């Protein structure tokens, strides 16, 4: 049940969220160019890509990003307004700097969330495997928002989170029909929305996390066109149905990682060998 706020409190939190979002936008050093996405190359040799994750509140978005970017699973749940991380990785011998944008799934921030999509290269739509309603919202809400704001061809990956809850229930014989989303149901949804691929993961156990972001990075590296913002543009190599991401063997190596703070700096992350 969502807690109730007085109108003045809600307005105050919305203004704080807007200031925070604008600060995040300044902190992510993607080139200033209009368009929902563009090919960018850092002078130091790293490609830059922006990944945005959306989905229902409490479906596991923040935990997924935190485990990948920081190597830490957040033990306490705090609803995200907006946040971002930076992960520097190597993929097929290429240095890639990923700006990872976490968004609010709550209705209170519906008007602010569209600002997060600017200059994005790939979108992850997340849902929780223990909440079938969150899968339904993928088709009735999230894919519609993504296509409207980023155009029909931006690469989209569908991600089922909290796989450990479903697996544990199945082992204990408590996984009754309808309580959990099956792999087949997730794959069918990915096919229906035109996702490039479907992934299931457990942030708690750190299973399937790197594989998900490897696929997302590969999809982002295919984006070459510069469509106008506001939807309707074209992304080379985007769209498409469920299938192969065109990889040539896994070569995802984690490098330095950090979480950008709201002053535009960034806490020092750790180097994972």
TrEMBL record:
Pfam families: Ras. Residues 229-244 have a biased composition (Gly residues). Keywords: Cell membrane, GTP-binding, Lipoprotein, Membrane, Methylation, Nucleotide-binding, Prenylation, Signal. Residues 1-27 form the signal peptide. Gene3D superfamilies: P-loop containing nucleotide triphosphate hydrolases. The keyword Membrane applies. Residues 245-262 have a biased composition (Basic and acidic residues). InterPro entries: P-loop_NTPase (IPR027417), Small_GTP-bd (IPR005225), Small_GTPase (IPR001806), Small_GTPase_Rho (IPR003578). It is a lipid-anchor. One of its GO terms (cellular component) is plasma membrane. This is Ras family-domain containing protein. It comes from Rhodotorula toruloides.
